[in-house]
Amino acid sequence: MIRARIAGVGHCVPEKVYDNAYMESIVETSDEWIMQRTGVKERHISEDGVYTTDLATEAAKEAIADAGVTAEDIDLIILATVTPDYFTPAGACVVQKNIGAHNAAAFDINAACSGFVTALTIAKQFIEAGTYKNILIIGADVLSKATDYKDRGTCILFGDAAGAAVVTATESEKGIMSATLGANGEDGHNITCLAYRNDEDEVEKRVSHRKDTMWMAGSAVMKFAVKIMAEAADKVVSDAGISWDDVNLLVPHQANIRIVDGAVKRLKFDRDKVFVNIEKYGNTSGACIPVALCEAKRDGRLKKGDNVVLVAMGGGLTWGAAVLEW
Ligand code: UT7
Hints:
Shape: globular
Number of strands: 13
Distance between the termini: 18 Å
Strand order of the largest sheet: 1-7-6-4-5
CATH class of the largest domain: Alpha Beta
CATH topology of the largest domain: Peroxisomal Thiolase, Chain A, domain 1
CATH architecture of the largest domain: 3-Layer(aba) Sandwich
Order of helices and strands: EEHHEHEHEHEHEEEHEHEHHHEE
Helix content: 25-40%
Bound molecules: oxa(dethia)-CoA
Radius of gyration: 18 Å
């Protein structure tokens, strides 16, 4: 049976930083509150004129080089984003042009913070079906461009980044061992950013009244995230036919350190085996997990043969998890 595996990873993070001192200067907050309630110290912010596909292109180039393939080898590009450059063309098509992946099909998906795991799950299906051999998946967002910097409840959380991976066919028995996706549209109103709609109540509840900014019912989302991330992670470990003792690293979406700690506590998993970099980047949506994978690899926390669990929850509401052998 053909399996799918991650053959290479890449990332791109803008240089400009908003630290907690800067956040204190624009809204009524404190470094102490932000650290205690979220774990975020700094967020990276794209310059004016730098958009999702710019970061996505750099991350893609790095992932292709890391995988030891060329852009021509890529059969499909999936870009997960909620901050697209255009409604059309899809960002994946812009990346295709930028990197010269002339043989690739390309499309975008919208699953917010679960976007990278969703793209990985789609790639797994195409590869196991024998349709494609090399799929470039990217999680990229410039949330700073959709952030209400008058809303202290959200502006302290978000940053910009892109992360990418090349998913390749393998005859190994392992690779991506299991994956799951889910959605709860009933509670989708808890995280919103409007496009054409002009719902008055949505515009009204934003501090800046700018409908194209992210609004979130933070506490409700946080409670749901802890529960669903623990459940989804547990499901994929069990579906993979392994136990938590066999898991070398858990890479959760980095939305809030309290969500990570809450989910890990529910799972009774060893906190030392959890990758956390939220202090440096905040919540970068679909980029969190692939950026974390790049850093875990670079830091030697991810070694060949390790069993890794990925888990995310985000707008939609959506969630996803996967177990893979590195
Ligand atoms: O990526 C997936 C989607 N996103 C998430 O998963 C994020 C989930 N939610 C969160 O991270 C947290 O809910 C927040 C960080 C957004 C908020 O933390 P919280 O512990 O849920 O606080 P809260 O919303 O219940 O607010 C508690 C108090 C409020 O004041 P009062 O009403 O008690 O006087 C807020 O106004 O904290 C206040 N507050 C702040 N104070 C200082 C809210 N934001 C701030 C702030 N600085 N930045």
